[in-house]
Amino acid sequence: MGLQITHLGSGSRGNSTLLESDNCKVLIDCGFSLKQTEKRLSRIRIKPSSIDAIFITHHHGDHSKSALKASQKWGSSLYCNIETAIKMGWNPIADCRTFGNLERININDEISVLPIPIPHDDAENIALIVSNGDGNRAGFVTDLGEATVELKRHLKGCAHISIEANYDHSKLMQGPYPDSLKRRITSRGGHLSNSQTAEILNEVMTPELKTIVLCHLSDKNNAPHLAESEVLMRIGEEFKGMIFISEQSGPEFKIIIGEENPSTSIKEDISDP
Ligand SMILES: [Zn+2]
Ligand SMILES: [Zn+2]
Asked: 251: which of 164, 186, 267, 273 is 20 to 30 A away, CA to CA?
């Protein structure tokens, strides 16, 4: 029983990632419009009504935009922590199910999800560690100014890590943003730079790590080749797996953990580009 991971797209204009096992489908974040989410799912021939659960990491619109509408229309269970539910104005009984930090949630006997608190702005944000029942774990980490000891402990041993590489430090500093925004982005509650991401990956990498997806790249303050080269420069010699970038458009590839061939391009599946 492998776990398939498809980034529907990632960036400041929307984030959503599909997880699939044999009998279970889960979305992490639902930050595109409902129409856009359904369109992206249809490109990989997924019926929205087959999604069992939607997990929302935090209340910012690029992660939560159509979550409630989607869960109601598709009949999917909506999960988030209580702080996110309050900020979204969701009723924690009628609209969603809430969880506490480090409380493992079993969607069924195939997929379980562990939320880890991470520092981000005014949000009670979480990273998610997903287990697929046969010992493989995958980590999903976006929107944080720095990695905590606890997060790094849980990322160690993961077979897959999707992690943000939000900005290139010198590009941000030389770019058009006002100083106050630059300070916010680089603060403990902001986002990870390429070099911070590279350092975290270097710290948590074990021989089990087969695939990495860099995501949530800033349009203005980053570029895919900068993020990839910075990470590869830091971990290159030790890392024997594959590295991908999820951009704002998508989906473009599918990662399969727990199988010999860890990735597949899904371009040929796209029926409505
Ligand atoms: Zn955010
Ligand atoms: Zn975000």
From this structure: 186
